[in-house]
Structure formats: structure tokens, C-alpha cells
């Protein structure tokens, strides 16, 4: 109940942040939650994937997105007979509260110190880039299903965990990485339980071995979402490759062994180049000199906050997990970072870090070791969360 109350309060505060940020605007402040990918999910829910009348590659840009959120949005919009934006905000609120509950369960199992659990819980939900949990992105539903799948593994409800993973596979391609990480958790717990068993008969060993194999095969269910999406594109539009074409031709993302060159290009980009390459599109969209002036003022801090800061935190968290010899959490976390950035793109690293939550939890645990750093981190985190929320609601690109 505590998790739900805290989550609901944070959700209300997010609405207040957007309302204040958009004071004086003639349009509904609720549209502050619908920018960038949020609009894409809503558009798919309302009109489907195709964008007829647009030149290539703009006509295929929606094919890069997974169908879970659009299906939920359109289904509930038809049932409630409300516009998709209102339904999306309502549904995302439900997913956020469910996420809070599973997060609380996860933390209370992982950490003995309950005060530390509460601190990490707050720091995560009010982390600057956790603003994406408030808007209509897939991070919220994916994280809820991911934490649910982990918690179910620990309660030995393996096939229910597979079911959660199955649905997670319809939200993001990184469900593949989650499947590997969860299989490692399951394998570790399985052999730990086997070692703790005092009397082991041949029959029991054979039965447990068969159960382990079947349950391990069940982790393949995480990939069904991607296969289903590709099959849908093939049968509906005659080309299963549209997902990859959209990533490559419109978003300029393609997995490559030379992805490190893209990393270096992003991380060594000067402020002038960052402004030119990142904000040309936004200038066309918003067409406001004040908007551009505002970005020029903030671009250096923006670049540091959105690119360097997440990578620094990821390596600090990794170093601390290595120090604690929690290798399983490292193996679980890094594929979720590596998979997307093997395309050479680091410009959404902040969102990938949110999904790789064990790294962040390690950072928060480290900050909590000293009362001063504990307070400083929480204050910085909350203020940055409000700042990022204000930027996003005004249409600024924040990851």
C-alpha cells in the first residue's frame, strides 16, 4: 500500500509540473505528456502503422515501434469512448502504480536495510530520466512486466514469469536481453536450491532436471512478440523487413560492429555541432526564435546531462557491483544497454539506463552510505526530474 500511495503522489506531482510548465498555453496541458515517441504510439493506436502520402522514409517511421501500447490505447479508447490521449494517460497511470508495487517487492527482497529500500525506491522514481515513466512511453509497462517476471521467478512461479516475459516481448526488442538475464537468475536459484537439499534421490534429480530444461525453454517466449510483429508486417504490408528499414533509413540506427565510432562521435561532439545536428528538426517543428535561444543557453548542460551523466553513472554502478561481487546483476544489466547502443547511438542512453535498473540501484546505495551525499543526491535528483519534465512538456528533446 505504501508503494501505491507514494507512486500516486508522484504521479500527481508530475501533472503539476506539466501544468506549471505550460501556463499561458492555449492548448490542453495534457498534451505536454505527448511528445516525440508518445505521439508515435498514439498515432499507431488511432490510425495504424502506415503513413500514406508522406515521402520515404518518413512514411515508414512508425514501423520501428512495438504494438503493445497502441493496442491497449485503442482498445480502451473504444471501450471508454474517450480520446486516445486521455486513455493513454489513464493507462500509463495504472502501469506506473503497478510498477511501483513490483519495484517495492523487488527492493525489499534484495536489501535487508528497509530505510535503504525506501531511499532507493524514491531515488529511482524521482531520478531525472524516470520522467519517461510519467509519459506515454514503453518504459513503464516494460519495467512493470520485467520486475513482475523477476519477482515471480523468486516465488517459483516460473510459467507465470514466462507469461509476463511474453507480454514484455510485445513492448520492446530488449526483451531478448531480459530473457537471458532472467534465465541466469532462474539458473542461479535452481542450483542454489538443489545444493541446499539434504536428500537427493535419482527420481528427484531426474524430475528436477526435466523441469529445469522445460522452464529454460520457456524463456524463449520473450521473443515471440518480435516474431509476431515481423509476421504482422509481412502479412499486412507484404514486407517483414519494415521494422529494420524504419530503424535504418529513418532513425539512422543499424547494429554494427563499428558501433564504438558512433559512441565517440556523440561523446566528442562540440556544443555547436550538437545544436546544429540535434535541433534542426525541432526548429522546423516549433519555429520559435525564443525556443532556439533557450536551447542555446542550455545546450551545454543539456548535452552533459543527457549523454555524459548516464554513462558515468552506468560505470560507477558497474564498478560498485563488481566490488560487491554481484556479477549476475552486471550480466543482467549490460545487455539492456549494449543492444540499443550497438547501433552507434548514445542519444537515448538515459532511457536505456532506466531499464538497466540494477546499475542505478548500486549508485543510490553508494550515495546512501554518507548522510551528506545521501541528501545532496536526492535534492539534485528531484530538481533534475522537475527540469527534465518541464523540458519534455515544452517539446524539448530529452532522450
Unreliable segments (pLDDT under 50, ≥5 consecutive)?
270-297
In what range is the share of β-strand residues?
Answer: under 5%
Question: What is the 3D form?
Answer: globular
Strand-pairing-aware structural class: mainly alpha
Total strands: the figure is: 0
Distance between the termini: 32 Å
Q: What percent of the residues sit in helical stretches (DSSP H or I)?
A: over 70%
What integer is the average pLDDT? 80
The profile of the biggest β sheet is:
none
Number of domains: 1
The radius of gyration is 22 Å
Q: Enumerate how many helices there are, as a single number.
A: 18
Write the element-wise H/E pattern from the N-terminal end onward.
HHHHHHHHHHHHHHHHHH
Offer a concise description of the structure.
By secondary structure, the protein is mainly α.
Which helices and strands, and how do they pair?
Blueprint: H1 2-21, H2 37-47, H3 68-80, H4 84-110, H5 114-125, H6 139-154, H7 158-168, H8 175-196, H9 202-218, H10 224-237, H11 242-250, H12 259-267, H13 271-286, H14 289-323, H15 327-341, H16 349-355, H17 357-367, H18 371-393
Helix pairs in contact: 1-4, 1-18, 2-3, 3-4, 4-5, 4-6, 5-17, 6-7, 6-8, 8-15, 13-14, 14-17, 15-16
Structure, explained:
The chain is mostly helical. The protein has one domain. Helix content is 72%, strand content 0%. The chain is built from 18 helices and no strands. It is globular and about 60 Å long. It starts with a helix and ends in a 6-residue tail after the last helix. About 7% of the residues have low confidence.
Structural features:
mainly alpha, 72% helix
